[in-house]
Structures are given as structure tokens and as C-alpha cells.
Specification:
- The structure is a single chain.
- This protein has helices at residues 2-8, 24-28, 41-48, 64-80, 103-114, 132-142, 159-171, 192-203, 214-220, 227-238, 248-253, 260-267, and strands at 14-17, 32-35, 54-56, 85-91, 119-125, 127-128, 144-145, 156-157, 180-184, 208-209.
- By secondary structure, it is of the alpha/beta class.
- It has a single domain (36-267), classed as NAD(P)-binding Rossmann-like Domain (Rossmann fold, 3-Layer(aba) Sandwich), CATH 3.40.50.
- It has a 4-stranded parallel beta sheet, sandwiched between helices.
- Strand 3, helix 4 (64-80) and strand 4 (85-91) form a beta-alpha-beta unit.
- Helix 3 (41-48) packs across helix 4 (64-80) and helix 8 packs parallel to helix 12 (260-267).
- The two termini are 23 Å apart.
- Pfam families: NAD_binding_10.
- One of its GO terms (molecular function) is isomerase activity.
- Keywords: Isomerase.
- Residues 12-97 form the NAD(P)-binding domain.
- This is 3-beta hydroxysteroid dehydrogenase isomerase.
Length: 268
């Protein structure tokens, strides 16, 4: 949102949120904040009226049925509010053989949009680099990365870079409206040994690579409520499905994405 505020001004933006109190900063910046509930079509219709381009960010639920229902509600509300342009913020786990819990959802939405009559673009994020920052103390204590992906590489993007790409798509009609599909990644993907080496250079602490099994990974993080889902995601990584590297970010923004080393140094 901060990118869009800089590009078009706060008075041109509306943030549709589930909990308005959490958007106080946006309100203070002059952005119109309205309540929207993906499971309540009436709130969506009211939130979407007089909208030129809708940026749709899925909820965090791991319920496939709820995610699909939320998206179908959004399409219904868009039609009622006479909005026909949408940017879907997706994830690159959409391959037909991808075992990630939500893979079918990410495969479904682009196909649904293709048949919807909407003008749209889909921007698929690679793995967010940002969770690595709060994860570093645990990795330093363990002395190793433990992702169960073997010798397969995975690509990342920072949330700041993702937000910049979304903002550019929202304001540049030539980049959207024709069913364009983008995957935003850093300029290289990383095997875990190489990622550990970068972390060593940033932290000065030894971080090697000693992968656990997928089952063990799920058990380790079960208490956080998404152990099984994360394990399923890294099973996809172990199949080599997350090593995608593209120049889409540069195509959208005109410059290269921030490198992993630069990102970790800036945030750590």
C-alpha cells in the first residue's frame, strides 16, 4: 500500500479490510478504509463500488472450500459492483503434481479467471524471504537449516519487492488486463547449503544444512498450527518445484529485485 500511496496518492486508494482497527495507520495517511468480509457478499459489494482495479489477496486459511468460497464471493460482488479488473496475488505452488495443501486452489483461480469475463493478471510470489529474519536465532541455535528439500533449490522474494510489483501492475494497464501470468523471484534460487553460506556471511555464525524428514518437520512446527501444511509445501520443494527463477520482477518494475544477501543484511 505504501508504494501505491507514493505512486497515486492516498485519496485514490481504498483498503478493504476484515478488521478496521488494524488499518489505523492507513486511515491516518488518508486512505479510505472500509470493512469487507470475504464470506459476506454484501460487505464486498459495498467495499468494491467505484473501484477501477481490485487487488485480491487471499485469506490465510488452509481450508480449500473456504478459500474457493471467498474467491467466488469476490467475483460475485465484483459483478454486482460493476468492477471488471482484478489482480490476483498468488503463489507459485500451482503445478498439477504439487503436493502443497493449497496447490489446487492456486491452480484453480487462474483457470476460473480465464472463464470469468474479467480483465485480469495473476502475480505469483515465490517464497517470502521475510520469515527467514525471525527464524535466524533458531537457526543459529540449531547450527543448521533443516528444510526437508535435499539438494533442490528454492527461490525467494521479499515482501517489499512483492508489494512494489503489485503496485506497478495496479497502475500500469499495459502490464495487466489481458490474463498475464507473472512469477516474481529474486535473480537466483538457492540450494540450502548455499543459503546457509549467505547466512553465515551475514550473521557470523555457523549455519549448515542438516535436513529432517518431512514428517519430522511437520511435528516440529505442529504447535504453531501449520506443521502439516508447511511439511506439504517443502515436499514440493524436494520435488524441485520451487526452483523457478524469472525476470518478471524486472519486467514489471524496470529494475532487479533485491538479492538475498542484501535483504538479510538490511533486515538482520
Amino acid at each position: 500500500m505504501q508504494n501505491l500511496i507514493k505512486m497515486v496518492g492516498a485519496d485514490s486508494l481504498r483498503a478493504a479490510v476484515h478488521t478496521q482497527k488494524k488499518a489505523t495507520k492507513l486511515t491516518n495517511q488518508g486512505v479510505e478504509v472500509v470493512k469487507a468480509d470475504y464470506l459476506n457478499v454484501e460487505t464486498l459489494v459495498a467495499a468494491f463500488k467505484n473501484t477501477d482495479v481490485l487487488v485480491y489477496i487471499p485469506s490465510k486459511t488452509y481450508s480449500m472450500l473456504q478459500r474457493i468460497t471467498e474467491f467466488e464471493n469476490t467475483l460475485s460482488a465484483m459483478k454486482q459492483a460493476h468492477v471488471n479488473r482484478i489482480i490476483f496475488v498468488s503463489f507459485y505452488a500451482d503445478q498439477e503434481n504439487n503436493p502443497f495443501t493449497m496447490s489446487a486452489y492456486y491452480g484453480y483461480v487462474p483457470r476460473r479467471l480465464a472463464s470469468s469475463g474479467m480483465k485480469y493478471a495473476v502475480m505469483k510470489n515465490s517464497l517470502y524471504a521475510d520469515p527467514l529474519i525471525p527464524y535466524l536465532p533458531e537457526l543459529i541455535e540449531r547450527g543448521n537449516l533443516i528444510y526437508p528439500v535435499g539438494d533442490q533449490a528454492m527461490s525467494f522474494i521479499s515482501q517489499d519487492d512483492s508489494a512494489e510489483a503489485i503496485a506497478n501492475l495496479a497502475i500500469k494497464s499495459e502490464l495487466r488486463d489481458k490474463g498475464q501470468l507473472y512469477t516474481v523471484t529474486q535473480s537466483e534460487s538457492y540450494q540450502m547449503v548455499r543459503l546457509g553460506e549467505i547466512m553465515i556471511s551475514v550473521t557470523g555464525k555457523h549455519i549448515g544444512y542438516a535436513p529432517v524428514t518431512s514428517k519430522e518437520f511437520g511435528q516440529i512446527y505442529a504447535a504453531e498450527g501449520d506443521g502439516d501444511e508447511l511439511a506439504s509445501m517443502y515436499r514440493a520443494g524436494a520435488m524441485g518445484l520451487f526452483d523457478v527463477v524469472t525476470a518478471d520482477f524486472k519486467q514489471i518494475t524496470g529494475h532487479d529485485p533485491e538479492s538475498m544477501e542484501s535483504f538479510l543484511k538490511r533486515k538482520y
